Amino acid sequence: MPRTTRFALAAGLALGLAAAAAPAVPGLSAGMAAASAVQARPSESASESASESAGQSATAVIKNTAGRVLGTVRVERYDAKKSRVSVSVRGLTPGFHGFHVHANGVCDARSVDRATGSAFTSAGSHLGPGEHGDGAGDMPPLLVAADGTASASFVTDRFTLEQLGDANGSAFVVHAGPDNFAHIPDRYFHRPDATGATGPDAATRKTGDAGARIGCGIVKVRA
Ligand SMILES: [Cu+2]
User: Fold this and answer.
1) How many angstroms does the Cα of residue 209 sit away from the middle of ligand 1?
2) How far lies 214's CA from each of 80, 117, 123, in Å?
3) What residue stretches are annotated with the Superoxide dismutase copper/zinc binding domain (predicted)?
4) Cα of 99 to ligand 1 centre, how many Å?
5) The pTM is what?
6) Could you read off the pLDDT of 100-130 as tens digits, one per residue?
7) Which end of the chain, N or C, is less packed with Cβ atoms under 10 Å?
């Protein structure tokens, strides 16, 4: 391999890793970063790294229907295909709460759904593509402790930072109840609808029965 190509390869990898490595290991030099990138992500090509816009991240401040801040979400590029989501909230009822990315970056507490009474319908449906359980906007539910707080950090390849910042934006939404991810076995019967009479019905496949939207945060993507 010519010397110039080797340099370009290392520089490209260092560029791609800079955002991910810098906050976790501040003392890491660019040379070490390039070396560890080769070990950690052997399958990634230099061209992919070079085309990434390093340092991109997104944040959202989640507020309840009264406008009180419940917490924050931060999304960082993890690698070429994945994002790390870090969330911290407080003031919620203990137990599991559905937590999704919704497709519109509008959090209007006064936009109430007539059928369910839920606020924040302005945030639209879940970020697609894919039905609930397999959808881009599906994330692990928040587990709220007895003191009303929840904190979580996870890596997902369901969506990218580019998707979060698309033309109509996106919003992180916290629901009042647990999420079943539309995982309803066929032995459970329900009133017949367009889906047939067993398994998840249309409402469950849409929302995971997580109940009202109690918190909403508009995603702000930073280049
Ligand atoms: Cu939702």
Assistant:
1) 9
2) 32, 11, 12
3) 70-219
4) 6
5) 0.74
6) 999 999 999 999 999 889 999 999 999 999 9
7) N
Provide the CA 86 distance to its chain's centre, in angstroms.
Answer: 9
Question: From CA 101, how far away is CA 216, in angstroms rounded?
Answer: 10
CA–CA distance, 85 with 154 (Å, rounded to integer):
5
One-letter amino acid of 215 = G
| pLDDT given at position 195 | 57
Quote the ligand 1 centre to 194 CA distance (angstroms): 22
CATH architecture of the domain formed by 57-222: Sandwich (2.60)
Beta carbons within 8 Å of 222's beta carbon, 6+ residues apart: 56, 57, 58, 59
Backbone torsions φ then ψ of 172, nearest 5 degrees: -85, 130
Flag residues of the chain having pLDDT under 70: 1-55, 192-196
Between CA 194 and CA 68 the distance in angstroms is 39
Cα(207) to ligand 1 centroid in Å equals 6
Q: How many whole angstroms from 130 Cα to the centroid of ligand 1?
A: 14
Q: Ligand 1 centre and the CA of 38: distance in Å?
A: 38
User: Can you tell me the distance from the alpha carbon of 101 to that of 136, in angstroms, rounded to the nearest whole number?
Assistant: 8
Domain residue ranges of the chain, discontinuous segments joined by +: 3-51, 57-222
- Dump strand ranges (E) for 53-132: 57-64, 69-77, 83-89, 95-97, 99-102
Q: How far is the CA of 174 from the centre of ligand 1 (A)?
A: 7
Residues 105, 171 contacting (CB under 8 angstroms)? yes
